[in-house]
Amino acid sequence: MSAVHTVAEIRAAEDALMARLPDGALMQRAVAGLVTVCAGLLDGVYGARVVVLAGGGNNGGDALWAGARLARRGAHADAVLLNPEKAHAEGLAAFRAAGGRIVARDDVRTALAAADLVLDGILGIGARGGLRGEAAELARLLRGGRTAGAVVAVDLPSGVDPDTGETPGPHVVADHTVTFGTGKAALVVDPAAAAAGVLHPVDIGLTPYLPEPGLTVLDDADVAALLPDPGRESDKYSRGVVGVLAGSGEFPGAAVLAVGGALHGGAGLVRYAGPGAVATEVRARWPEAIAGPSPDTVGRVQAWTIGSGLGSGREADVAAALAAGLPVLVDADGLRWLPDRFTGPALLTPHAGELARLLGVERDEVEAGRLHHARAAAARWNAVVLLKGSTTVLASPDGRVRVNPTGTSALAAAGTGDVLAGLAGSLLAGGLSPLDAGSVAAYAHGLAGRRAAAASGYPSAGDVLSALPAVLRSLRGPLQ
Ligand SMILES: NC(=O)C1=CN([C@@H]2O[C@H](COP(=O)(O)OP(=O)(O)OC[C@H]3O[C@@H](n4cnc5c(N)ncnc54)[C@H](O)[C@@H]3O)[C@@H](O)[C@H]2O)[C@@H](O)CC1
Ligand SMILES: [K+]
């Protein structure tokens, strides 16, 4: 699991740690990690051309110190000082003493053009708002291909918002980001995360001083530990029975895909509720599923997956499934008929357009502020909100957030959401909480998308579904 902390938490931990260390020692730990990454990216430090972009804070101090150390190892180091009066005094002195040069304004373009590596130390966790003036112009030059060198962001790409993952204005787009102490939301949530490039975390000894993280990113081991583990004496009922209310005459395939996802998510039995013609298609593909015309008549379940491809005019069916008071997942068309607030375990799985409609805002606003809007909806409906998209974000009404790391463009295809809904509903029926069911499903679904893409180039939702069993098998091992 990797942890993400807020700027306030990081500053408090840094203060606590710095009180125990000699002056400047913490910055030197950060700089040592930064220099190691830079040296690894260069084809030899000696003779390499390094340009340091230094703002007036400690982020600029890190970059100047790193430039100094690289210069001592034989690099040609140039620095652009964005705020010369406020430049980090010790960092600047070390940079000069090591032979680093300050670039005159007129020579900035030439220096960037010749650079093998550009260190972005304009702004770090002190950033508020996007870059302005000369800093914005530098970011524009870097994006415009003014340098062929690797752009390495110090701690964060300058100008992104550390705690929200939003990009309030001009910002640097880096090839690599060397980040200190712990993760920041901007490094895992788009659109900011897209500007970070490859992440290189550097341990500066902060962990003992940091609180439990509010935002986490799960890994294979976390997901394996969360997956239901049926014992030898389990039967189909104790493994969980999931009801799927999905599909319509217009969208029968959604039912087939959602039931398929549910069958592979560990539940012992899947009950499909829907029109006879759709049920016939579902059973033709999945003879192991049981079908009935409505949630009331299909039999007992432990959780409901509602909504994929439901079409219009199904309000009564949705109300009947919700009335059971069971753990519930609501997707796609089902999101049109949400209760005022959930009182039991609930997981909503909108994409940005659906969440925008729910919240009465524009889709662009949701995409620009994914964390904010997922949190707002979680609080509004008292439900875990899994916001699908370039980075899938899960926000729980208790304040916890998870970001899924396995997303892939392979999932941007019709029907993949139906598979996810079935899979996550199955995990709910298996006893997982909405946050765990959603995170595990998103993780496995992303891996299945990658596996399917490796096999077929542009995979269909059916390919993603077919890849799921092998992904789950490799995560959890074989059943006993
Ligand atoms: N505190 C420490 O000991 C350590 C700090 N570290 C570095 O220090 C950084 C944080 O340093 P600072 O707190 O000095 O903050 P920054 O260097 O991120 O920002 C400096 C100042 O710029 C101003 N500013 C904010 N937004 C601006 C904008 N949009 N345009 C222009 N100016 C703006 C603010 O006054 C801010 O305090 C971290 O990101 C990390 O790189 C590391 O060296 C690790 C140790
Ligand atoms: K930076």
Helices and strands in order:
Layout: E1 2-4, H1 7-18, H2 25-41, E2 49-54, H3 58-72, E3 76-81, H4 89-97, E4 101-102, H5 108-114, E5 117-121, H6 133-143, E6 150-154, E7 176-180, E8 198-202, E9 215-217, H7 220-226, E10 241-245, H8 252-263, E11 269-273, H9 276-285, E12 290-292, E13 303-306, H10 315-323, E14 328-331, E15 346-349, H11 352-359, H12 363-368, H13 370-381, E16 384-387, E17 393-395, E18 401-403, H14 416-429, H15 434-456, H16 461-476
Parallel strand pairs: 2-3, 2-5, 3-4, 5-6, 6-7, 7-8, 9-18, 10-11, 10-13, 11-12, 13-14, 14-15, 15-16
Antiparallel strand pairs: 1-9, 16-17, 17-18
This protein binds ligand NAX and potassium ion.
Residues 59, 120-124, 153-156, 158 line the site of potassium ion.
In short:
Homotetramer. By secondary structure, the protein is an alpha/beta fold.
Unreliable stretches covering 5 or more consecutive residues? none
CATH architecture of the largest domain: 3-Layer(aba) Sandwich
CATH topology of the largest domain: UDP-N-acetylmuramoyl-L-alanine:D-glutamate ligase
Overall pLDDT score: 96
Reported for the largest beta sheet, the result is:
11 strands, mixed
Strand order of the largest sheet: 1-9-18-17-16-15-14-13-10-11-12
How much strand content do the residues show? 15-25%
Helix/strand/pairing category: alpha/beta
Bound molecules: ligand NAX, potassium ion
Roughly how much helix do the residues carry, as a percent range? 25-40%
Task: Work out the count of structural domains.
Answer: 2
Radius of gyration: 26 Å
> Whole-Å distance between the termini?
26 Å
At the fourth level of CATH, the homologous superfamily of the largest domain is: Ribokinase
Q: For this structure, what is the CATH class of the largest domain? A: Alpha Beta
Total helices: the number is: 16
Family: In the N-terminal section; belongs to the NnrE/AIBP family.
Protein name: Bifunctional NAD(P)H-hydrate repair enzyme
Cofactor: Mg(2+); K(+)
Domain YjeF C-terminal: 219-475
